[in-house]
Design a protein that fits this description.
Blueprint lengths: L7 H26 L10 H54 L7 H21 L1 E2 L2 E2 L9 E9 L5 E8 L10 E2 L4 E4 L8 E5 L9 E4 L10 E4 L6 H18 L8 E2 L5 E5 L7 E4 L12 E2 L15 H54 L3 H27 L11
Antiparallel strand pairs: 1-2, 3-4, 5-13, 6-12, 7-11, 8-9, 8-12, 10-11
Helix pairs in contact: 1-6, 2-3, 2-5, 4-5
Length: 402
């Protein structure tokens, strides 16, 4: 049945043309934007995943900047520690030269003073954007933002790389009121003074030897560091007492150490026992120190090679200072290496995430190009088909011609 009111062929042709035009518009949009999923209406699930991943990529780019800043800051600290080590080696050379009797020790001491001041200058200048790892301005570790960790529930946490500060300043140790923790009798040439402490963990304790042998000014203060043993405390106390004795002109008076479990052991020639006071340490106590820790290079101020005893004591002291400086440089080097590795990883991870996002949302341009040409042909055919369908009712006119 033919009808002049309803043209079914035209309706079908029109629907086909509309469908072709819609697909053609999508394909042209894909080609112009380069994305198969440009909005949530294209594919809601893929769109949501891609946007979460894009936010992570933005975060990792910020982390890369943070790592670069942290690496540069740590590098400054490492360079300062390495330069300090070199200067300490020069000081050691001066001290070794002062062991000889027939030298001008006063001039050597002047040179040592200049090198000591240069170390202070290096430490003071070793800052990057205001952060100094070596000047002793703080004991808190510095956290460098290193990663963003997303778990299966979508919770995001920041990962940090902790960098320990290394105090290479020359600030002197001080001590407040400390209780007498141990007193050892004895003394005399060749005799040993042994002070036994109840504490097995000494980190944070302030050890003080005051007016040893009744000699005013012959004193030593040491605040134990993390990892120190009582043997380490004995070494530090004896070194400081030797420097103090040389400065006081106590010729021939020396202190040494030997290892005794749970004891601070000093070999002394004062003729009396050594009384050691200590701030009692109780694990988990968390109370403030009676003593205040000085810089790791605090012994530099006490080195005076103008006398034979001073030169001998300085030689012992400089060895420990060089080792502390080397340890500081090694600590910074390890941290810098780790930050560098993390920085490389973050860069590769960012590339991998970017590639993954592309595989989800990017358009296949070869396929889009082929589809565009096919749709253009379909559009032409659909247009032609609609034109033919629209002309069909004209055939009815022949029925009414006489």
């Amino acid at each position: 049945m033919s009808s002049i009111l309803t043209n079914n062929s035209a309706m079908v042709a029109l629907q086909s043309l509309q469908s072709v035009n819609s697909n053609l518009a999508k394909t042209q949009d894909m080609i112009s934007t380069g994305k198969a999923v440009g909005s949530a209406k294209d594919n809601a699930a893929v769109f949501a995943i891609s946007k979460v991943m894009e936010s992570d990529v933005s975060g990792f780019k910020a982390i890369s900047d943070s790592l670069s800043l942290g690496e540069s800051t740590v590098a400054v600290g490492r360079q300062a520690a390495e330069t300090t080590t070199d200067l300490l080696k020069e000081i050691k050379g001066k001290i070794v030269g002062a062991q000889e009797e027939n030298v001008d020790r006063a001039k050597i001491q002047t040179d040592i003073g200049q090198l000591r001041d240069q170390i202070a200058s290096v430490v003071g200048a070793a800052q990057f954007n205001g952060l100094n790892f070596v000047d002793g301005s703080s004991t808190e570790d510095v956290d460098v933002l290193a990663s963003l960790d997303r778990d299966s529930a979508g919770t995001v946490t920041a990962g940090q790389i902790s960098v320990s500060r290394q105090d290479l300043s020359q600030t002197q140790m001080t001590a407040g009121t400390v209780g007498v923790d141990a007193t050892a009798a004895g003394g005399g040439t060749g005799l040993t003074t042994v002070a036994t402490f109840a504490a097995t963990q000494v980190a944070g304790e302030s050890f003080v030897a005051t007016d040893v042998g009744g000699i005013t000014g012959l004193s030593a203060v040491y605040v134990a560091s993390e990892g120190d043993t009582l043997a380490d405390v004995a070494t530090e106390i004896s070194t400081r007492l030797n420097l103090a004795a040389a400065e006081l002109g106590e010729e021939g008076l020396t202190f040494g150490t030997n290892t005794t479990a749970g004891a601070v052991t000093l070999d002394n020639q004062t003729g009396t026992g050594v009384t050691l006071g200590a701030n009692e340490f109780e694990e988990g106590d968390g109370t403030a120190l009676d003593g205040t820790r000085g810089g790791q290079l605090d012994l530099l101020a006490g080195i005076d090679v103008s006398t034979g005893d001073g030169a001998a004591a300085g030689l012992v002291a400089i060895e420990s200072l060089i080792q502390k400086s080397i340890d500081s440089a090694a600590s910074f080097g390890s941290a810098e290496q780790r930050i560098g590795i993390q920085s490389d990883f973050v860069g590769k991870l960012t590339d991998a995430l970017t590639s993954g996002i592309g595989s989800l949302v990017d358009a296949n341009m070869e396929e889009a190009s082929a589809r565009l040409q096919a749709l253009q042909v379909q559009q032409q055919l659909a247009t032609q088909s609609l034109s033919i369908a629209n002309q069909a009712p004209q055939a009815l006119l022949s029925l009414f011609r006489g």
